[in-house]
């Protein structure tokens, strides 16, 4: 308490950092969330020094993995910068036991500076150390559908704690004194006690790498959809169903897509439903690295076949996969057609 403005600035710089990552991804790490009084004093500094630098990025990563505390009064302030302007949203209701009162939290009708575009992706990183007010912010952003949460389940601690001295001793008791009633979650179902589950679970130390991979995929989505539309127009035999498929792709919601597998599953389900054609399939094709396998493929083409029988067996084993599947179903896979002269030898 009673810190000078210079001391407050020093505290903020220790608890908050930002940088621009590859792919024009903004990264903002917050380890302690200051209260509304501090934000009202230093809001101009934060907007000019930090937020304005992030406005030009194509996506934002908000790192709360080490955020163990904060002030309830700042929740609407932070949420408002990620909420579209023109509307206000009731994000939480807080019950305070000492005063036996409830306080509704709403996004701000106006903010200092600009809001982050609703068209841009936001990823929030969490860990077991993410606690208190930070958990409430994660929960609200998740329920709003505004952020993809990546990392570990949060700590499930209390929203607001008060430390009370026991008599005249040197012992203290720390008690939860405020509770989130969470209107966005529906009734009394909140994160307290259980924590917030991420959309994508991964160890906290790998969360940033995973988040960047998700953003790379989402950045590629427009090009993927464009290529898919062209393929349907150029090659799909059921020409009469192409307009409906193109309309589907143009209006498809990819907000929940966080992996290649998610994308393929969604495309196949929706495309097949509209086309009524189970043969219409999207698959992931992994490009093989140039290695001894590619050399084997070249040899299987028109190059001379080795005379040694062991080498010939190795060549066949590298190019042909044979198995008997359950139900006595034969399985044969090969990725390259060999020249007839090669087949005769093998």
TrEMBL record:
MF GO annotations: retinol binding; serine-type peptidase activity
Organism of this sequence: Petrosaltator rozeti
Name assigned to this protein: Interphotoreceptor retinoid binding protein
GO cellular component, one term: cone matrix sheath
GO terms under biological process: proteolysis
Top-level taxon in the UniProt lineage: Eukaryota
Residue stretches making up the Tail specific protease domain: 4-203
Alphabetical keyword list: Receptor
A Pfam short name: Peptidase_S41_N
InterPro entries in alphabetical order: ClpP/crotonase-like_dom_sf, Tail-specific_protease
């Amino acid at each position: 308490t009673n810190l000078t403005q210079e001391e407050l600035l020093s505290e903020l710089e220790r608890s908050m950092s930002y940088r621009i990552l590859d792919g024009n991804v903004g990264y903002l790490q917050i380890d302690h969330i200051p209260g509304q009084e501090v934000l009202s004093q230093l809001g101009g500094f934060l907007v000019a020094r930090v937020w304005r630098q992030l406005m030009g990025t194509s996506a934002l990563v908000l790192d709360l993995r080490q955020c163990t505390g904060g002030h309830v009064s700042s929740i609407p302030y932070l949420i408002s910068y990620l909420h579209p302007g023109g509307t206000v949203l009731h994000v939480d209701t807080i019950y305070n036991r000492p005063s036996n009162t409830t306080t509704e939290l709403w996004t701000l009708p106006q903010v200092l500076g600009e809001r982050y575009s609703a068209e841009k992706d936001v990823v929030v990183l969490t860990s077991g150390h993410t606690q208190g007010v930070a958990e409430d912010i994660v929960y609200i952003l998740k329920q709003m559908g505004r952020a993809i949460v990546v990392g570990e389940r949060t700590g499930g601690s209390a929203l607001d704690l008060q430390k009370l001295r026991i008599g005249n001793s040197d012992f203290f008791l720390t008690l939860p004194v405020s509770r989130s009633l969470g209107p966005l979650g529906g009734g009394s179902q909140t994160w307290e006690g259980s924590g917030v589950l991420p959309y994508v679970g991964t160890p906290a130390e790998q969360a940033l790498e995973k988040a960047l991979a998700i953003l790379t995929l989402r950045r590629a989505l427009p090009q993927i959809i464009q290529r898919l539309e062209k393929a349907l127009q150029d090659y799909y035999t059921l020409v009469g169903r192409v307009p409906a498929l193109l309309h589907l792709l143009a209006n498809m919601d990819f907000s929940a897509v966080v992996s290649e597998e998610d994308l393929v599953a969604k495309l196949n389900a929706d495309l097949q439903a509209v086309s009524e054609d189970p043969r219409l399939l999207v698959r992931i094709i992994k490009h093989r690295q140039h290695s001894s396998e590619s050399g084997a493929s070249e040899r299987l083409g028109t190059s001379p076949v080795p005379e040694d029988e062991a080498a010939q067996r190795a060549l066949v084993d590298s190019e042909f996969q044979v198995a008997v599947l359950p139900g006595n179903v034969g399985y044969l896979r090969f990725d390259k057609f060999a020249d007839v002269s090669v087949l005769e030898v093998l």
